[in-house]
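Sample intake sheet
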Amino acid sequence: MGAPLRSVKTDMLARPCATPGAVWHGEALALATGERAAYHQAWLHHLEHPGEPEAAPLVSVVIPVRDGNAWIRDAVESALRQTHPRLEVVVVDDGSTDPPDRVLGDLDRVRILRQPARGVAAARNHGLREAAGVLVQFLDADDLMDEDAVALKVAAFREVADAEICVSSYRTIGSHAEKDASTHRPPPLGDALCPTRDLLETVMERYPFHTSTLLAARWVLLDVGPMDEALPHGEDARYWFLLGVRGTKVVAVNAELGTRRFVSTGLTSEGAAQRLSWARVGALNVIDTLREPRLWIFLGVALRRLIRRLWEDMDGNEDALLEELRGGMLAAVAGLPALGRQHGLSVRPPLALLEALIDELGPSGEAPGLLLPRLAAATRAAWAEGTEPGANDVELWLRHRCRRSTCLNQAAFDELLASTEARLYSGDAQLPDPLFEGLVRRGGPLREQRLRSVRQLVPRLGPRLALGVARVEEEAARTWGRIRRVIRVRTRLRALRGRFSDAPGA
């Protein structure tokens, strides 16, 4: 096996696997079938024969292209120069008018697949289906890989047996109408939002990594399903979201293992289509977040992104696909009460987020639009069916670590705080100390102080307060009895006065 030019142990970022590699793959193989079984078998074979090049896991480099003959050969040659000993290149021609065969025909280890022009998502899906490798490296036709890129990422998989995808950083060159290498900054690795910590949390806060840096277990990509071919733009961001929802484990090589080239590909002229596609991505993410209670803690971030960049289309564009997504969002809101009952959770915290969005965009949902008035009505209807939040809700929402001041999630915490305060005053069962401490810190200094004081005083004053309330109620009842007797006497007096005034000679 070719030796990497750099050491993966120096630059690797990962949560370690608790089990040695051979043991982990053996145990996983016992439960696996199909493509996943083939993956674990390949790794066991490699671990048993670590020095044999032919025992290395096969890697398929999938490169989609449409009319990219000006740069596709450079990308393919960078893939063929890899030091990893077992590798194939799969080029998917997405309806090019100038086929890539003209510039690639003399290269070995290159398969060219053809399809009608259906977009980059369909091309990647086609390449993934046809790939022979147990590992798949995505590479855009205008990008380049360093010669040790695949070897270093495979080494990361070897070091962390339960890794499912590996990413890296990259350098940039060139410019076009939308991006320039001098100002573009790759997504950072190794910080608090590194995708190796929690991919879903990273995806909800920022773009996690560039597509051309990803090496993944093929069975994982097949498990999450194909990229959305209805999305001409943003299909990768949507895919990273689904990988995050799945709980995919990420490792990273914190080094520049490739070059991203900014070239004019013709996509920059599709501004309206690009914006519409991103609106679909945002709506799909919100719908999925509403339908899965464990994802409710990310709803504030998803809604904020929808407001900031995509609301004009969501509320005003009559596109048929967007109308279908608007219906899906309303159906997801209507289904929240049943979902909450099924999982023992209150729907009022997530509904509070929707109310915050509605109040921000149009008071009481009165502003005209294709979505906002219907969303306001659906939210009110679901609220009426909701129950008061309890300890399970506090435990769920405290898991979210939003790092943006613009996140709407504070509305959910305000609802939890109000419910907790009402329960404290009524002497209802209190939260366990860890949950109470975590919650009150979300309410600001003044509210935190008030809740702590109420929690200390109510148990001591509760019996006295209850006795005082009972005495007040008793006195009120006596007073109301006296008032009723006075009213009856005055009524009789009026009746007698009327009778005498009607008598003859009166």
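Comment: Residues 272-443 form one domain. Strands lie at 12-13, 59-65, 87-94, 110-115, 135-138, 144-145, 165-174, 215-217, 250-262.
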